[in-house]
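Thread title: Can someone regenerate the structure for this chain?

I was given the following input by a collaborator and told the matching C-alpha cells would be attached. They weren't. Posting the sequence so someone can regenerate them.
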Amino acid sequence: MLCDTIIKKAVIVDGTGAASFIADVAICQDRIQAIGQLDGYDAKQIIHAEGLVLSPGFIDVHTHDDTNVIRAPECLSKISQGVTTVIVGNCGISASPTILKGEPPEPMNLLGKKDDFQYSTFGDYVKAVQAAEPAVNVAALVGHTTLRNNVIDDLQRTATNEEIESMRESLAQAMKQGALGLSSGLAYQSAKAATADEVMRLATVLSQYGGIYTTHMRTEFEAIISAMEEAFETGKHAQVPVVISHLKCAGAGNWGRTVEVLSLMDKVSEYQDIACDCYPYSASSSTLDLNQVTDDFDIFITWSEPKPELAGKTLKVITEELNLSLLEAARALQPAGAVYHCMDEEDVKRVLKYKLTMVGSDGLPNDPKPHPRLWGTFPRVLGQYCREEQLFSLEEAVHKMTGMSANRYQLKDRGEIKIGAFADLVLFDPDTIKDTATFQNPISIAKGIESVFVNGQLTYSNGNVSGKRKGVFLFRSSTQENN
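Best answer:
Regenerated them for you:
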C-alpha cells in the first residue's frame, strides 16, 4: 500500500500514558493510516527513526497567540518546540468577538494594537485564521474581559443586568460558531469589578453547548484558596468543567502552600470536573501591575511604552537610575510588561507533577524580550523535569502535553497516536531534547526536535518551517462545523 509518509522503528509514546513501544507509523493525507511492522507498505517519504521518540504533537493549552497566528503564521516559537495546536483566548482576553473604540485596554494590549482587533464576531476570527493557514492548529476561548470591553463604558465598574445579557448573547453566538468556552482574568483591573454573579451568569451559557470555563483567578497570592473556591463555585453553578489557569502560589509569603492548594483540588475533584495548567518556570509574566510591585523578588521589565530604553533591566536597577521608589518607578514605566520571579521551584514541581495538570506556555509573543517559556516550555518539561530530574516518566510527561489536553478541550482525534487520528506528530531525541531559551536570551530554538508533522504535513525539520503549512481551525467537537 502506498502512503505519503512512513516513520520507521520509532519509540512510540502514544499520548495515553501507556507504556512506550517500537513500531512504524504510516501517514496517508492528514491521518494515521497504520501502526506496527509495516514492511508491506511503501511511501513517498520514509523517515528512519531508530532511537527517536514519536509522540503526538504537543498541545499548548494556554497561549496568547490570538493575533500572532494570523500576523506571523509560521509560528516558529511554537512549531520549533513540537507544538502542533495552540489554544488562544486565555486569561479573559481574546481577539474576538471585539469592538474597540480606542486602543485596547490592559491586558488586552498584550495581544496587539487596535488594528489587530478586527474581528467583531467569533466567526470573523475563524475565517481570518483559516485564510492565514498557520503552521499550527488553532482553537479558541472567548475572553470575559473582551466581552466586558464591548459593552461597558468603564471597566472599573460592575456590569448592569442589560450589559450582562448583551455579553451572554455574544458568548452564545461564539459558542454556536465553535468556541471552546469562556476564559476570565479576574486578577486584572479591567475585570476586578466583575462580581461572581456576573461571571456565573455568563458561565451558564456554556452548559447548553458543552463548553468549558477557564480562569486566571482573582488572586494567586495570600487569598488563593478563596479565589479557587469562587472558581469552583462558578463551575458548579453553571454545571461546566473548570480549568485553573497557570496554577501557582505567588509571592514569597505564599511559598510552600501548593500542598494546601492541591489538597483542595483533590477534594473538589471527587465531585466536580476540574483541572489546571501550569508552565515549568518559577517566574510569571504579564503587564506591569502596580499591585504586584514588591522588593520580595526580582521584577524584570520586558517593555515600556514611555521608556522603551529601560526594557531588559530589573525594576530595582531602574529605581536606582531614576532615583525613584519602586512604586514611583513602576508608574513611570506604564504601560509596560514584566517578568515576576515570584514562585518557589518546589511549588512549581509539585504542581507540574500533579495528576490533573496540563502544560501550557502562557507565552507572550508580542513582548520584545519575552519570558523564555514562549520558546522553551515543552522541551523544558521533557529535558529538565522528565529526563534530568525524573519528576515523572516520559509517558506521563507526554500525556500531560497531548492526550490529557485533547480530552479536556474536546479536540476530537487529536492528542493520541492511533489509527484514524489526525497526524499531528513530533519526532524528538529523548537524550538531547532541551530548552535553550533563557531570561537573558529568550528567543532561542530548542534542541532535540527532529521533525514536526501537522495534519500529515512535514511542517518543521532541521530548524526550519516548511513553506507548506497545514494548520486548521479546530472547532469545539460538539459543534456542527467539526462533524
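The chain is about 30% helix and 20% strand.
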